[in-house]
Amino acid sequence: MKFRKGRMREEPEINFVPLIDVLLVVLIFLMASTTYSRFAELKINLPKAEAEKSVEQKQNIQVAVSANGQYAVNDTPVSFAGPEEFALVLRRAAGSNPDPMVVINADAQASHQSVVNVMEAARAAGFGKLTFATQTSAGK
């Protein structure tokens, strides 16, 4: 039973041109609407100090902290038994000055705890002025 005589059957054909057109429009839309985020490292410009060396004041208390945890107050070696005992040493070094400047000269290899001990003793002694001594660069 052949109903169609003489006609050849046409093979179905997929036309890709409209599909490519639609994909191109979608691609352009995605490219235009996508935001690109850049993860950059934190850039910090540190301030530079060009001030002249300040005049040494007589009311300073010089506290030195060595790399192995030894303390010296005004070039006199002192042992650290606790913040309260060290506060007494700082008060004696201050003499009649009610609020001297405590200058902490800590070695670069000194532990943080050693420096915090001095800060805690200065707070216990009632001294609110603390500063750290630094080295200046040799080229300037």
TrEMBL record:
Transmembrane stretches, start-end: 12-32
Q: Name one GO biological process term.
A: protein transport
GO molecular function terms noted in the UniProt entry: transmembrane transporter activity
Membrane topology term: Single-pass membrane protein; Single-pass type II membrane protein
| Principal place of residence | membrane
> According to its UniProt record, where is this protein located?
Cell membrane
Q: Which UniProt keywords apply?
A: Cell membrane, Membrane, Protein transport, Transmembrane, Transmembrane helix, Transport
Q: Which GO terms describe its cellular component?
A: plasma membrane
Enumerate the Pfam families for this protein.
ExbD
| InterPro entries per record | ExbD (IPR003400)
Q: Which domain of life is it from?
A: Bacteria
Family under the similarity heading: Belongs to the ExbD/TolR family.
Supply the name of the protein.
Biopolymer transport protein ExbD
| Organism the protein comes from | Formivibrio citricus
